Amino acid sequence: MLEVINIHKTYEGQLLLEGISFTVTPGETVCLLGPSGSGKSTLLRIIAGLEEAEEGRVYWERENITDVPPHRRRMGMVFQDYALFPHLTVAENVAFGLRMQGWSPQDQQERVREVLELVRLTGFEARRVTDLSGGEQQRVALARALAPRPRVLMLDEPLGALDRALREELLEELREILRSSDVAAIYVTHDQEEAAAIADRVLILHGGRIVRQGTPYEVWSDPGSLWVAQFLGVGNILIGKWRPGTDSSLLETELGVFPLACSHSHRYGELVGALLRPSAVVESPGGPIRSRVTDVLFQREHFKVCLENGLCAFLSRPPGVGEVITLRLTAPLQCLGPAPAGSKGGGIR
Q1: 219, exposed or middle or buried, with CB in 10 Å at 0-12, 13-18, 19+?
Q2: What CATH architecture does domain 2-221 belong to?
Q3: What does the angle CA 307 – CA 333 – CA 261 come to, to the nearest 5 degrees?
Q4: pLDDT tens-digit readout, 197-213
Q5: Whole-model pTM?
Q6: For residues 177 and 141, what is the distance between their CA atoms, to the nearest angstrom?
Q7: What share of the chain is helix, strand, coil (3-state, %, to 5)?
Q8: Who contacts 13 (Cβ-Cβ below 8 Å, separation ≥6)?
Q9: CA distance linking residue 41 with residue 339, whole number of Å
Q10: Where are the domains of the chain?
Q11: Residue 282 has what pLDDT?
């Protein structure tokens, strides 16, 4: 098991990582998710030994490897730009780390065959990597990282350079490869959909800290804070004043007063952030929410309808742009806790 304990790191005098701690078990894929500049890649490089932290420790199976040089940590790296050797063949690229570790030519050949089969590149051994597509090059980079049987596989935005269709295709294959290889993996991305598809567990970084963690389902179903909900784009954010109700809490907003599912303690009139899922809004004659349609976007099984009041809803029929529609809620708002002064609501991205 990999243990990362209390990592602190500053960059240009600013605190980048503050007290980061987490574990990764064999066979588990942990995704570091956050906006650009949140320290995801720096944290990855610290774990790999490519950068030093001002404070903190890294353990593998209870052995302190904080001061162990990178080449002795047995960690594989996959980068967005592939970092392949253009003058070498596919097989020579994959075997590079094995040669550095002193594997015999026969063992190198057998291991190269195994990992190329794993990444679906059997028969590509003699081809130059410069003759491959972007997706094929990334498979070679993955095979090269897996070949020496690393303790931990670290992937830094590995699909960022690929177009959408190829990224989705390779993402499915990557999930299968990681699960079949049973290697502990840390996957860095700023793409929420990518994180949800690849991760067993998601760690969301913001302001130098892990602000939410859990399975993709846990994180998306309960963001836990106003910032995480806005970052994930899981729904409409409403800001209003909390007040007690007969059966549940209520939130008084510019759009009206709505029931609020809340487990927090609030003062009467306290400014609170709440999540309104687009799927919890339906068209209803005489509904309490009335607004003009500003945009309609088809999204496979429904239409994303954006309104003049800033809300978005998922509807089964496409209203016309400019049409005035009325809506009602089918579920209470989900409380996200106190909202900072000056907070604003908004629709899903």
Answers
A1: buried
A2: 3-Layer(aba) Sandwich (3.40)
A3: 175
A4: 999 999 999 999 999 99
A5: 0.88
A6: 13
A7: 25, 35, 35
A8: none
A9: 30
A10: 2-221, 234-338
A11: 93
